[in-house]
């Protein structure tokens, strides 16, 4: 168990710090509330778990063998995050038409182009895989632990969004919030591109 404490800390840090997933969850929580954001939360956790498992089982070796593939994925992920930022910034601000929320499948699939998720998965596969377990058992263990730690962390971001959503009663405040969240997501995308 002592050997796993650094892994727990790493998962807590990666799930709890700002990133594309958490910025989207704040925006969704603010516009739709926690309950209606829950499918996106579950999608993010499921997508991360599947990605971590696949990376631990050997997908990360492809990125080592073909660095150009990793660069293409990073560029594609950045472009997709910029599209999401544009969608949020351009979304209507009237109360009867809030921005479209991410579905379970969209949130899960987003992990495939989310650079922070790839960094997380590759680091887990290369640093935290338990040597005493078989490859599938170790991959399943770290994927499950990552999802268990990730769920409350990303939930806090959605709850934060839901709490500040009450302050967004006027169209002008909603517009300002959408633009700030979109700019934050775009900035994150550009920072991850470096």
From TrEMBL:
Entry's transmembrane regions: 49-69, 139-164, 176-193
Organism the protein comes from: Pelomonas caseinilytica
Membrane topology: Multi-pass membrane protein
Keyword Transmembrane: yes
Domain of life: Bacteria
Protein's name in the database: LysE family translocator
One Pfam family this sequence matches: LysE
Keywords per UniProt: Cell membrane, Membrane, Transmembrane, Transmembrane helix
Subcellular location(s) per record: Cell membrane
InterPro entries hit by this protein: LeuE-type
């Amino acid at each position: 168990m002592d050997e796993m404490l650094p892994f727990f800390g790493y998962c807590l840090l990666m799930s709890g710090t700002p990133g594309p997933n958490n910025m989207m969850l704040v925006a969704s929580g603010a516009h739709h509330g926690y309950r209606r954001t829950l499918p996106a939360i579950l999608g993010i956790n499921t997508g991360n778990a599947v990605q971590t498992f696949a990376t631990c089982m050997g997908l990360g070796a492809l990125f080592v063998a073909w660095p150009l593939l990793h660069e293409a994925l990073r560029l594609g992920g950045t472009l997709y995050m910029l599209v999401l930022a544009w969608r949020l910034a351009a979304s209507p601000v009237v109360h009867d038409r809030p921005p479209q929320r991410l579905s379970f499948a969209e949130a899960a699939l987003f992990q495939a182009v989310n650079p922070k998720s790839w960094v997380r998965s590759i680091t887990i596969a290369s640093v935290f895989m338990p040597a005493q377990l078989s490859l599938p058992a170790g991959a399943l263990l770290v994927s499950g632990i990552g999802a268990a730690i990730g769920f409350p962390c990303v939930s806090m971001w959605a709850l934060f969004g839901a709490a500040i959503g009450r302050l967004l009663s006027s169209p002008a405040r909603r517009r300002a919030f959408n633009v700030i969240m979109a700019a934050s997501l775009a900035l994150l995308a550009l920072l991850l591109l470096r």
